[in-house]
Design goal:
By secondary structure, the protein is α+β, with helices and mostly antiparallel strands. Helix content is 38%, strand content 16%. The chain has one domain: NADH Oxidase (3-Layer(aba) Sandwich), CATH 3.40.109. Bound molecules: flavin mononucleotide. The site of flavin mononucleotide has 11 residues, from strand 3.
């Protein structure tokens, strides 16, 4: 089968990661693939905030856990996170960032890594403590985070979800 298609069909969300760190060159490649996503009018308004700092990841987890009132909240133990942000008023912001997220998920898979989209900043990113933490990281105040990608070496296979029926209609 064509390699690109095979990569699409075999990618799975991974929610358990090994301790082994993601090498910097692979991480760079994943993020680069994100930046190569298509964007409406080629505006490239998205920004990528990448961290492998245990301190930063724990502080983000903690501030989000507080805001979500869920002390157990976590990123599945991933030691690498990529946040994709876009201006809140960007007409195609969510679409652009979503294309970037998918590019990165497929790139990670192609490079032998697992990943999972983490969504909860969408719900708590405007809470004052979370917003100020993000600003402190350098996220522009007028941006929101569309998704966090947790990346790491998979410690599970992930689940194949069969496609629902009737997803596709061919029109005459
Ligand atoms: C917009 C979006 C938000 C998601 N948010 C989360 C999330 O917060 N936590 C999580 O574990 N998975 C999240 N996922 C992953 C989905 O649960 C996953 O893609 C779906 O169950 C299908 O599994 P697959 O990716 O292995 O095909 C998200 C996926 C998308 C596209």
């Amino acid at each position: 089968m064509n390699e690109v298609l095979n990569n699409i069909y075999t990618r799975r969300s991974i929610r358990r990661f090994r301790e082994q760190a993601v090498p910097k060159d692979l991480l760079d490649e994943i993020v680069r693939a994100g930046t190569y996503a298509p964007t409406g009018k080629n505006l490239q308004l998205f920004r990528f905030f990448v961290t492998q700092s245990a301190h930063t990841i724990e502080n983000l987890r903690a501030v989000m856990a507080d805001a979500l009132k869920n002390p157990a909240y976590n990123f599945y133990g991933a030691k690498t996170l990529v946040m994709v942000t876009v201006p809140k008023d960007a007409v195609n912001g969510i679409a652009d960032a979503s294309c970037a997220m998918e590019n990165m998920m497929l790139a990670a898979h192609a490079l032998g890594l697992g990943s999972c989209w983490i969504n909860q900043l969408k719900y708590c990113g405007d809470e004052p403590e979370v917003a100020s933490f993000l600003t402190g990281l350098g996220v522009p105040a007028d941006h929101h985070c569309v998704g966090i990608l947790a990346v790491g070496y998979a410690a599970e296979e992930g689940t194949l979800h069969p496609r629902k029926e009737n997803l596709v209609t061919y029109l005459d």
